[in-house]
Amino acid sequence: MTFLQIVSIAAGAMFGIGALAAIWRIIRGPSILDRALATDVLLAIAMCGLGAEMAINRHTDTLVVLLVLAMFAVVGSISIARFMAKQDVS
What we know:
It is a single chain. The chain is mainly alpha-helical and 90 residues long. It has one domain (3-89): Helix Hairpins. The chain has three helices and no strands. Helix 1 runs antiparallel to helix 2 and helix 2 (32-57) packs antiparallel against helix 3 (63-89). The N and C termini lie far apart (60 Å).
């Protein structure tokens, strides 16, 4: 087993544990902001996983998917922030 395979397995395990923790917070989150933050974390973990896969396999085939995920994360965060700001004013 090469060093790259060991690092890949370790990174995959860490990404998996982080994703499970984020999903747990989405399910159990006491407030909408906790769930929104966990969703952002889950998207960030997915983006890091795609980036790691691209680096390990030395290709850029999924770069478009990575950019679309980043766009969804930014738009989602902004829309939730605007929604919560309107609720605070009322």
